[in-house]
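We now fix the convention by which a protein and its fold are recorded. Think of the row as the fold of the chain written in a discrete alphabet. Here is one such record, which you should read through line by line.
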Amino acid sequence: MTFQVETGDRSDVVDVTGRVEETVPTDVDRGVCTVFVPHTTAGVVVNENESRLRADIERGLERLAPRGDDYAHDAIDDNADAHLRAMVLGESVSIPVTDGSLDLGTWQSVLFVECDGPRTRSVEVAVVQY
């Protein structure tokens, strides 16, 4: 299943937990849900969906790979920092499924992290029962 995420800024953290949860079939007793972002300048993580932490994620990524830091790739499309940030974040997460629901911890959410927006992005979700 694929759904779209609209981002509003160059860096943006969007909680997609509910949208991912909607894709999990209710008849899956035990399984795994993989969330995949097919983009080289965006990522997905599991972390707490708290406004100050989302801002901290954005600031931390900026410190890790500052924009305009004389990257060779910037000669092509001026977004090397976004590629580097996305590489650190990763393009997928896997979450256990129990009784048709994501088996996340109390404070865990699935967060889509935009590094080169604003854009319309795709998120792919696959659930396998075992």
Summary: The beta strands are 2-6, 12-15, 30-36, 42-47, 92-98, 101-102, 109-114, 120-129. The two ends are 19 Å apart (CA to CA). The chain has a mean pLDDT of 98.
